[in-house]
Write a structure and sequence with these properties.
Layout (H helix, E strand, L loop, with lengths): L20 H6 L17 H6 L1 H11 L11 H7 L2 H11 L5 H4 L3 E4 L2 E4 L5 H15 L24 H19 L11 E10 L6 E4 L5 E8 L4 E2 L2 E3 L16 E3 L6 E5 L4 E3 L2 E3 L1 E10 L18 H4 L12 H4 L1
Antiparallel strand pairs: 1-2, 2-9, 3-12, 4-10, 5-9, 5-12, 6-11, 7-8, 7-10
Length: about 325
């Protein structure tokens, strides 16, 4: 299900010829993103035609910070905040979600914020990587139908790291915070992208809902901007949620602040007055882009043990200092 901030998922065609993909991609003239609403298919003929060439070009370019591209112990040690790693370990060991919940403050009904999810190194490395990507000369497709400027993380090679991050942390966190909407099959897929607000580009975003069952919005920075708060509106969707579950208010971003909210909880980015703000956003949804909007009954919701059950790909050992 795609909302007004929908995104087009291209399908891979046959691989382009090896060798000069980077040079060929740099020679392309990409269409300028113009639409600020329903722009997800803008210039799709160009992106469809050159999809394989562009993917080969990103592979030829290579990363500046390789740790960002592979999810595993090194990624978690460097980029996941120790407080989150320890709290998640407790939850996976059957010791409850109290420590995980303690990382969050419900700043608006239905909007949960934390500065203890990602490290400073994650923000700095990712901002540096984005500069590497943006300075590559390879055309970049707009991240969604409303934001014109940013990077689609899968398209530059971060799909493996993004999938691991979502499976191990983002999905169970969303299921804990929004058990009424996130069940075992409602967040099987994810879409990650960055957005950039600046006075010479996108400065604001109108009221909208996301194409997700739950959204993570992490502010990367850089420091020094003014304005650009995130405003939420009282829920007015098809299925009634109490006002205590989706209320109105504003979130003022600072570097490192991560915000979780239901995708259907409408919000807008207020005008950026000066400077530049970059955020990374992860949408969760079911297979084929399906977004659940009907709440589960209490007896249908997952337990903490189900939310934090170790995946098949990795088993978790409780750190010694937490096992006492």
């Amino acid at each position: 299900v795609l909302t007004s901030v929908g995104v087009f998922f291209a399908t891979a065609a046959a691989p382009a010829s090896a060798g000069a993909a980077l040079s060929a991609a740099r020679a392309l003239i990409a269409p300028t993103p113009l639409r600020q609403k329903k722009g997800e298919f803008e210039g799709h003929e160009f992106w469809d035609e050159h999809y394989s060439l562009l993917m080969d070009a990103w592979r030829e370019l290579g990363p500046k910070h390789p740790d960002l591209y592979t999810f595993g112990p090194a990624f978690q040690q460097r980029y996941i905040h120790k407080d989150l790693r320890d709290a998640a370990a407790l939850a996976r060991a059957g010791k409850g979600e109290g420590a995980v919940r303690g990382l969050f403050e419900e700043v608006i009904p239905g909007v949960f914020a934390s500065s203890q999810l990602f490290t400073r190194a994650f923000r700095e490395d990712l901002l540096d990587e984005l500069e590497h990507v943006e300075g590559s000369g390879i055309p970049r497709r707009r991240p969604n139908g409303m934001n014109r400027y940013g990077v689609i993380l899968d398209q530059v090679g971060m799909e493996s790291a993004l999938a691991g991050l979502a499976t191990e942390y983002i999905k169970p966190l969303a299921a804990m915070l929004f058990p009424d909407l996130v069940g075992p099959l409602d967040a099987e897929e994810q879409y990650g992208f960055t957005i950039r607000y600046e006075t010479t580009g996108d400065t604001e975003l109108p009221k909208h809902a996301d194409a997700s069952v739950a959204t993570l919005n992490l502010c990367l920075g850089r420091p020094g901007w003014q304005g650009g708060a995130l405003r939420f509106f009282k829920y007015d969707g098809l299925y009634a949620l109490p006002s205590t579950s989706a209320g109105a208010g504003e979130v003022v971003f600072e570097p490192g602040l991560a915000v979780f909210h239901r995708g259907q909880h409408k919000h807008q980015a207020l005008q950026l007055l000066s400077g530049e703000r970059t955020n990374v956003i992860i949408w969760l949804f079911a297979k084929h882009g399906v977004v659940r909007v009907m709440p589960y009954r209490s007896e249908e919701r997952q337990t903490a043990a189900q939310r934090w059950a170790p995946t098949q790909a990795q088993s978790y050992d409780l750190p010694h200092e937490l096992a006492l």
